[in-house]
Amino acid sequence: MFHPVDHPMKRGWVGRVDGEHVIQLAAQTLQAFFTGGGSAREHAVFPLAGVQLLTPVLYPPAVRIFDDSSSFSFANPAAVVGPGAEVDAGKSPGNSLLHGDLVLIVRLAAMVGGEGAIEGSTAVADWRRPELAPPKDRDFALALGPALVTLDELDPDGLEAVVRVQGQERLRGRFESFDWEIARALAADGTTLRPGDIIVGPALDEVDDLVPGSPGDVSVELEVNGIGVLTQTIAR
Length: 236
Known about the structure:
Blueprint: E1 2-4, E2 15-18, E3 21-25, H1 30-35, E4 42-47, E5 51-53, E6 63-68, E7 71-75, E8 80-81, E9 85-87, E10 102-112, E11 118-128, E12 142-150, E13 160-165, E14 168-174, H2 180-188, E15 198-200, E16 205-210, E17 218-224, E18 228-234
Parallel strand pairs: 6-15, 8-12, 9-18
Antiparallel strand pairs: 1-5, 2-3, 3-4, 6-7, 10-11, 10-15, 10-16, 11-12, 13-14, 13-17, 17-18
């Protein structure tokens, strides 16, 4: 999903990244694109540098976070944000301002498309506020993006991820093999997966002590090779 920089939209348009350009596709959402067979009429072409990429799935029907392929917990679909989002934990349940550290957990995710099948992968910045008890600690921001890469274009196993904070590298590592199909089958057992459902895989690692202590906002980049750079800003 994207919108031109000079024409911001909350939902945006479905697009396909092709080199240094983004091609607008005739589908209302990414879910609709895949349930329609994964093809759509092409519209305008925009330079990649002139668009803002958005979360691939806005308000997914369900978000399941796996720490292994045999169990998962649910996350808040309303907490899903995209590239360029400002991370703001807000206030505690007692309505007092939060002043603790933020933790970034690095993950990959898969999106369910037509007929309950996995269609592609994206990067995940799973933000946590450790001073709050689970699951409230993760209720404010779960970033997806910058794009969904289809399975015929990318094998998610072994992808390298790098986290930079204010331009300084804080983490580098590779995702271990994860059986996405077993996780999908467990998620589907006894229920129905909807197009746009998100399956989030186990953590690669985490970056802690993310506190906006210096003047101004703090820039965080999560780069996954083959997927791109997911940028976030921690509001001071």
